[in-house]
Design brief:
It is built from eleven helices and 18 strands. With 434 residues, the protein is of the alpha+beta class. Strands 7, 8, 9, 10, 13 and 14 form a six-stranded antiparallel β-sheet that branches. Strands 2-1-3-4-5 form a five-stranded parallel β-sheet, sandwiched between helices. The protein has a five-stranded antiparallel β-sheet with strand order 6-18-15-11-12, sandwiched between helices.
């Protein structure tokens, strides 16, 4: 049996050669790395792999290419091989192309050029693992269906030969049908697990070794997101809350991360206020051509920081959401501007940048309002920001893993048996050994 394949498509020969070399170093022992310089060439390779019954766990495609575009190719692959994981690796993908890839090609991950080698390797490894797990589940499902067919055949023959059914036979048949229904339901659920598009924990730990993210979507997909990157000597990070949750919020968060990749990684914008200004321009230009009275608060509430370890300063800008800093037994609150990243009736011309000098053992917190707005407790009231500040002050002596466990436990105790009302993200960073 031939090795399974990973297919890479890019019309730039230099990019394609570099991508193939990276993947061959990381996965070459177990996978063959196929390459194509156009969508049409890639279609031929896909058909050849199908004819040869060769597994194709991952396809990595550029978007802007002569002839067939990347989202069209990924849609073709998804129609032919719906279990293959599609990754869009491009520096020039508009929101519409990403949306088409999400809706029509089951997009697993969007990665902006230039890519982070570790991030891409982790993404491909995760996609391979998911593909192999899905293949195992499918094989088990086929075996299960064959077993069910055999059992039904056995029961039919038994009914033909036995005139009187005993209660024991009826009971055994019912147990088999219930187990089959339960197993089939679990398999279907496993096949629908959401593909992550957020930065992996290893990438965050590389930039901020002492950090944690509490991320709790209300539904399968989330309107909250967190994002991080490094440009030159600056590390830019954000925690964001898009309007809505579920599928609309999740789509908005995907576009938000796409815009951030374009503005920061490609255009090199690193000052938080300028990032928010440019992000607002993208959102207004792309989504708010025909505003109504009800649309005036659509957008993103978020915190953006830029950490300069050489100067030991944080540059901060906020859209509604504040930046919290625990220092020397008190919680310092740096308020953001009272407007979202989007259209707002009372919005100012530009967001405001604040500069914070960081001291040893400082702990920063960026969060959405999902935690503080959760109803619960003995009187079914909101948790509120004051209680959150008191909590992080009281646990400041704990390590960050212990803090995360404590914050999650307090949330669950507060919520009790009630429903989660919103998506939640809490991003914490401790600065030590400065």
């Amino acid at each position: 049996m031939s090795k399974p394949a990973i297919l890479c498509i890019d019309d730039e020969h230099v990019v394609l050669t570099g991508l193939r070399a990276q993947l061959k170093r990381e996965f070459g022992n177990d996978f063959r790395i196929e390459v194509a310089e156009s969508g049409e060439e890639a279609m031929e390779i896909v058909n050849e792999l199908i004819d040869a019954k060769t597994d194709l766990p991952v396809v990595i495609s550029d978007q802007i290419m002569p002839g067939m575009k990347g989202d069209e190719l990924l849609t073709f692959v998804h129609q032919k091989l719906h279990r293959t994981h599609n990754i869009m690796l491009t520096g020039q993908a508009d929101a519409a192309a990403v949306g088409r890839a999400l809706n029509n090609a089951g997009l697993y991950r969007f990665i902006s050029k230039p890519w982070d080698e570790t991030d891409l390797n982790l993404t491909v490894r995760g996609a391979i693992k998911s593909y192999l797990q899905g293949k195992t589940i499918l094989e088990q499902n086929i075996q299960l269906e064959e077993l069910v067919v055999q059992l039904k055949d056995y029961n039919e023959r038994l009914e033909d030969t036995v005139q009187v059914r005993t209660s024991e036979v009826v009971s055994q048949k019912k147990i088999i049908e219930e187990k089959n229904e339960s197993i089939t339901s679990s398999i279907r659920y496993a096949q629908k697990i959401q593909r992550a598009v957020l930065p992996p924990e290893k990438l965050i730990k590389r930039y901020f070794p002492e950090s944690f993210v509490m991320y709790e979507p209300r539904d399968i997909v989330s309107g909250d997101f967190y994002w991080i990157t490094k440009i030159d000597n600056k590390i830019i990070a954000t925690a964001a809350d898009c309007t809505g949750h579920g599928v609309p919020g999740g789509f908005m968060s995907m576009l938000g991360m796409s815009f951030l990749n374009e503005l920061v990684n490609r255009l090199g914008i690193t000052e938080p206020d300028k990032i928010l200004n440019a992000l607002r321009e993208n959102i207004l230009g792309g989504f708010h051509a025909d505003l109504t009275e009800e649309d005036t608060k659509d957008g993103i509430d978020m915190v953006v920081i830029s950490w300069n370890p050489e100067q030991k300063i944080i540059e901060f800008a906020g859209a509604y959401n504040p930046l919290l800093l625990v220092r020397n037994g008190e919680v310092l609150t740096f308020k953001g501007d009272r407007m979202p990243v989007g259209h707002y009736a009372k919005m100012k011309d530009a967001f405001t940048k604040q500069v914070v000098e960081i001291q040893n053992r400082d702990v920063l917190y960026m969060l959405s309002d999902g935690y503080t707005d959760q109803f619960g407790g003995p009187d079914e009231k909101k948790f509120m920001m004051k209680n959150f500040k008191d909590m992080i002050l009281n646990i400041n002596h704990l390590s960050l893993p212990e803090q995360k466990a404590h914050i999650e436990r307090v949330y669950l105790d507060w919520k009790g048996t009630g429903e989660q009302i919103d998506d939640i993200v809490v991003f914490a960073i401790r600065f030590d050994n400065l």
